[in-house]
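Students often ask why inverse folding is considered easier than folding. One informal answer: many sequences map to the same fold, so there is more than one right answer. In these notes we will look at a single instance of the problem. The structure comes first.
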C-alpha cells in the first residue's frame, strides 16, 4: 500500500505516520504539509505546500497512491463558522476533488470527531461543519471512504498535541492513562494509525467508526 498523509505535524497525523513507517504492508508515504515534519525515512517523501485550497501545483505528486489519511484539522475555539468551514470543509473538499480526479479507486479516510452531526442541523457549529465534510467525503465516489470519529485520544510514542491546553491536560492525566485505555470509547494515536491501515486491507461496513470501533479495527487480522 502507498498512502498520502496530511496533518502529520499534529498528534493524529504523527501517530498515523509512525504506524505506517513500522507496518511492512505500507511501501510508500507521501506527506503533504505546510511545514516540515522532521522525519527522515526511506519510505517517506515530504511535499511542502502552503495553500490547501488549491493543489494544482503539486497534483502530479499524487499519482500512484492507494489511500489518503486526511488527519489535518483544528479546534473550533475562537473561530467564526466561516473561518472553521474554510479549514475543515473547503480545504478538505479541494483535496478530495483533486485525488478523486486522479484516482477514484483509492481509499480516503477523513478524521472527524465524536459528536459530529451528519444531518448538518446541529446547533453546535463544529458538529454541523464536520457533518457536512463527512457527507462530502463519503458521497464523492471513492472505492471506499471512512469518517473516523474518535472521542478521547491518548498520545503515545512521545507524540504531543499541537494545542497547549490539550498538552496540559495530558500531562495532568498521564498517570491515569493505563486505566483510561480500558475504557472502550478511549483510543490512542497508535490504534488510530493501525485502524487507518487496516480499513484499507480489511474493508469495513461501518463507515463512521467511533472510539470503540476504531480500537476493534486496529486489532483486526481478518476481514470484518
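Output (designed amino acids):
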Amino acid at each position: 500500500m502507498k498512502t498520502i498523509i496530511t496533518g502529520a505535524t499534529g498528534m493524529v497525523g504523527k501517530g498515523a505516520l509512525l504506524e505506517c513507517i513500522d507496518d511492512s504492508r505500507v511501501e510508500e508515504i507521501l506527506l503533504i504539509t505546510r511545514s516540515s515534519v522532521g522525519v527522515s525515512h526511506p519510505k517517506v517523501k515530504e511535499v511542502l505546500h502552503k495553500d490547501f485550497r488549491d493543489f494544482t501545483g503539486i497534483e502530479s505528486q499524487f499519482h500512484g497512491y492507494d489511500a489518503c489519511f486526511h488527519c489535518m484539522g483544528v479546534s473550533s475555539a475562537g473561530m467564526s463558522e466561516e473561518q472553521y468551514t474554510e479549514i475543515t470543509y473547503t480545504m478538505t473538499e479541494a483535496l478530495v476533488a483533486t485525488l478523486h480526479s486522479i484516482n477514484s479507486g483509492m481509499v480516503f479516510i477523513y478524521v472527524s470527531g465524536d459528536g459530529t452531526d451528519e444531518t448538518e442541523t446541529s446547533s453546535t457549529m463544529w458538529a454541523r461543519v464536520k457533518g457536512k465534510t463527512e457527507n462530502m467525503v463519503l458521497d464523492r465516489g471513492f472505492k471506499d471512504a471512512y469518517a473516523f470519529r474518535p472521542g478521547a485520544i491518548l498520545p503515545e510514542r512521545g507524540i504531543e498535541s499541537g494545542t497547549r491546553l490539550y498538552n496540559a491536560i495530558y500531562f495532568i492525566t498521564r498517570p491515569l492513562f493505563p486505566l483510561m485505555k480500558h475504557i472502550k470509547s478511549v483510543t490512542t494515536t497508535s490504534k488510530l494509525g493501525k485502524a487507518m491501515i487496516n480499513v484499507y486491507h480489511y474493508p469495513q461496513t461501518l463507515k463512521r467508526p467511533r472510539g470503540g470501533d476504531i480500537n476493534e479495527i486496529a486489532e483486526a487480522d481478518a476481514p470484518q
